[in-house]
Amino acid sequence: MTSDITLFVNPTAGRGRGARAAQPAARVLRDAGFRVRTVLGADAGDALSRARAAVAGGTGALVAVGGDGMTSLALQAVAGTGTPLGVVAVGTGNDFAQATGLPVRDPGAAARLIATSLKSDGGRPVDVGLAGETYFGTVLASGFDSRVNDRGNRMRWPTGRFRYDLAMVAELAGLRTFPYRLRLDDGPEREVEATLIAVGNGASYGGGMRICGGARLDDGLFDITVVGPCTRGTLLRVFPRVYRGTHLSHPAVTTYRAARVSLAAPGLTGYADGEPLGPLPLTAVTVPGAVRLLGG
């Protein structure tokens, strides 16, 4: 194993925590005997190109420093390559880190786990989802959730998470179901009226909302959560339960498990790891053990 490690840094993650976290993480890794170089990018595309170049050049590990968006970019670079992935989670949501038991907002502790894992087991295999050509680690969302994201992304004011709170209020005012066509594995296509459908490689999205509360990253299967027709009042009453995963027992919620999921519905966008994938229809498949995760 090479002793060179690449830090893949988002300097703006968590209101600047990404930039601040890179230094203590690098210090721990250097103290452990590794040579560390840092990769930044002018934008997401440039950063990903640089990360892929580091992987192709034989880096011993790619360590994402930032939030779920940075981890998602890192997955695109390492999935299927054998290059281990480390995660120093200092973003706002950090759902991938939480799903894998990694430290959150503690760059020194995360770096120590990464160093120990590199010297011992080289990381453990974890699954990722693949939708089109995009890998994802946590949840592919569609329906009400994606409409909130669409609206929030179009808004120029206010900034930060409050923008998405306002977007949620606006979408609640026009709450409706969507006519989905859903296919699981090689089963028949079924028509489903749903408020939202979430496909979970991991359990949570949005900073701890356990929409697919039983999902695991090492079983080769997605957990699929279908929220059927419900009123605004029901949605508001059930929403707090999402953080505990207890919403899954509500009569309006149906769950499935499958290795391949196809979703189609007019006018909906799919989001994976919080990033837009594009309009439905989309098909997602699990890729078992596609990434070696350090310290998880």
Automatic annotation (TrEMBL):
Gene3D superfamilies attached to this UniProt entry: 2.60.200.40, Probable inorganic polyphosphate/atp-NAD kinase, domain 1
GO BP: any one term: phospholipid biosynthetic process
Listed InterPro entries: ATP-NAD_kinase_N (IPR017438), Diacylglycerol_kinase_cat_dom (IPR001206), Lipid_Phosphate_FormReg (IPR050187), NAD/diacylglycerol_kinase_sf (IPR016064), YegS/DAGK_C (IPR045540)
Domain DAGKc as annotated: residue spans: 1-135
Gene Ontology cellular component annotations, sorted alphabetically: plasma membrane
Assigned protein family: Belongs to the diacylglycerol/lipid kinase family.
Protein name: Diacylglycerol kinase
Organism the protein comes from: Streptomyces buecherae
Lineage: Bacteria, Bacillati, Actinomycetota, Actinomycetes, Kitasatosporales
